[in-house]
Amino acid sequence: MFEKRIKIKSPDQLKQFASTLSSCLKGNELILLTGDLGSGKTTFTKFLVSSIDSEAGEDVNSPTFSIMNVYETDRFPIYHIDLYRVKQFDLSDVLDNGLVIVEWPDESMYEIENTPILILDFFITEDEGREINIRLKNADYVRKCIR
Ligand SMILES: Nc1ncnc2c1ncn2[C@@H]1O[C@H](COP(=O)(O)OP(=O)(O)OP(=O)(O)O)[C@@H](O)[C@H]1O
Ligand SMILES: [Mg+2]
């Protein structure tokens, strides 16, 4: 499995990272986001959606109370799911219908077959910067968009 850990010193660097990453996405991926409260999962999602469709990016907020937000974009629908308060969620209705982004995923989601999976683990560093550990499953084509 491809794995890489990168340093993100500022929100601007996160924006750059998300923008580069987005150019490799086909719209059928599952992106799993883990990390402490406030580590940057929603901020990353907003930058990612913005770089795909700037208007849709304005709608991105924390779906904590709605569980799922859907953003229609020029390229493909994006399903943004937050499972912080939810134990189980069935992804079968959304997988393969667009890009699926999950904050606080449950364990079973790492094992989903036949779907390209990007696992991004966010860490807050001592200097209040961020690190992201990236793993790719069935998504080797995304490697060239990780810098
Ligand atoms: N380098 C950085 N990358 C990302 N966010 C940063 C960075 N530096 C500071 N921040 C700030 O950290 C906060 C991250 O909040 P965000 O809502 O994205 O976290 P989250 O991981 O989604 O939290 P939650 O688990 O509560 O959903 C934002 O206020 C953002 O401005
Ligand atoms: Mg969040």
TrEMBL record:
Keywords, in A-Z order: ATP-binding, Cytoplasm, Magnesium, Metal-binding, Nucleotide-binding, tRNA processing
User: What is its subcellular localisation?
Assistant: Cytoplasm
Tell whether Metal-binding is among the UniProt keywords.
yes
Classification via InterPro entries: P-loop_NTPase, T6A_TsaE
Q: Which Pfam families does the entry mention?
A: TsaE (PF02367)
Q: Which family does it belong to?
A: Belongs to the TsaE family.
Q: Which NCBIfam families match?
A: T6A_YjeE
What is the protein name for this chain? Answer: tRNA threonylcarbamoyladenosine biosynthesis protein TsaE
Source organism per entry reads Persephonella atlantica
Protein's gene: tsaE
